[in-house]
Design a protein that fits this description.
This is Arsenite-transporting ATPase. GO terms for molecular function: ATP binding; ATP hydrolysis activity. The protein is α/β, with parallel strands linked by helices and about 325 residues long. It contains eleven helices and eight strands. The protein has an eight-stranded mixed sheet with strand order 3-4-2-5-1-6-7-8, with helices on both faces. A hairpin with a 3-residue loop joins strand 3 and strand 4. Helix 6 crosses helix 7 and helix 9 packs parallel to helix 10.
Length: about 325
């Protein structure tokens, strides 16, 4: 993987796959490898079942914390879904209270309380925080060279990846409606309407523009093969391989590049049982290679012990290739 010293812009790597295949360990090993090469790395987890902190042996939260100092360094963040939703709704509530007449404050708050548990609220809030972190860290003037995202399992990740383009289009439609409303409002002001309505419209437009631009920047980054790409982590078993094929197909449909397949925990060919298991694994990998041609495939052997701490992550990093 390349850092700023090679391309001039920070790079984004997203590590994804079926639950339980080792995405977090691979994400941490990639971050460690980049830091040892002298790069400044931001490592972000969007998985509700966070394990970054366990891997590094350090408590993590919603703000970056330094977990490794080497030739470069690694700062890690575990996006807190509950905190993200709370902050998201608090910001929306403050905006609504500024824009709405006082008699509407209580109904608006009731609506936000219901929205807290509504379908899609979690994904939208996490995406907002992810966009804030990633777009900021991938700006040419940022303090980072590489951003590594340890994603949630496949289904959650696909919903998250589809959202930036959808929310950008949705916000564009709202802005078009606001434009029509403002033209109507201008006519009303010519008839003597007050300025309070004008201020509320202007503030709403600023909020919508800021949100649109953030999501549009994230989508633009995700579909840029020169700057971003996915690593799909799997094991050489039927269900993980099938899910990896489906994930690859859906990411391609979204225009998001896949840079590498990484097959984790390959069995050694030692003894009758393991030799037989490895032969079955070869059959599954043959299916994967045929279904996903043209994407480099890296095999990582089954390693001893728990993959936690710098020493164990460094051992994994040695098998990741260039």
């Amino acid at each position: 993987m390349s850092g700023r010293g090679d391309r001039g812009d920070p790079q984004l790597l997203l590590v994804s796959g079926k639950g339980g295949v080792g995405k977090t360990s691979v994400s941490c090993a990639v971050a460690l490898k980049e830091a040892r090469a002298g790069r400044r790395v931001l490592l972000v987890s969007t998985d509700p079942a966070h394990n970054l902190g366990h891997a590094w042996g350090a408590p993590l939260g919603d703000e970056p914390r330094r977990v490794l100092r080497d030739a470069g360094h690694v700062d890690a963040v575990e996006i807190d879904p509950a905190l993200t939703v709370q902050r998201h709704l608090r910001t929306v509530g403050e905006t609504l209270r500024r824009m709405l007449p006082e008699r509407m404050h209580a109904p608006a708050q009731q609506h936000l309380d219901l929205a807290r548990e509504a379908p899609g609220t979690h994904e939208s809030a996490v995406l907002e925080r992810l966009a804030e972190l990633v777009v900021g860290a991938c700006h040419p003037s940022s303090a980072y060279d590489v951003v590594v995202v340890d994603t949630a399992p496949t289904g959650h990740t696909l919903r998250l990846m589809a959202l930036p383009e959808r929310l950008t289009s949705w916000t564009e439609a709202l802005l078009a409606n606001r434009d029509r409303s403002e033209r109507f409002g201008a006519a009303l002001r010519g008839l003597g309407a007050g300025e309070e309505h004008v201020d509320r419209d202007a503030e709403l437009r600023r909020v919508l523009l800021r949100r649109r631009d953030r999501f549009a920047a994230l989508h633009e980054l995700l579909v840029d093969p020169a700057r971003a790409g996915f690593w799909l982590v799997t094991t050489a078993e039927r269900l993980p391989v099938a899910e990896t094929q489906a994930l690859h197909t859906q990411l391609r449909a979204l225009g998001i590049p896949v840079r590498r397949l990484l097959v984790n925990r390959r069995s050694p060919a030692d003894g009758a049982v393991l030799t037989a298991r490895r032969a079955v694994e070869e059959q599954h990998l043959a299916v994967l290679r045929e279904a996903v041609p043209g994407v480099p495939l890296t095999e990582v052997p089954l390693l001893p012990g728990d993959l936690t701490g710098e020493t164990a992550l460094a051992a994994l990093a040695e098998h990741l290739g260039g």
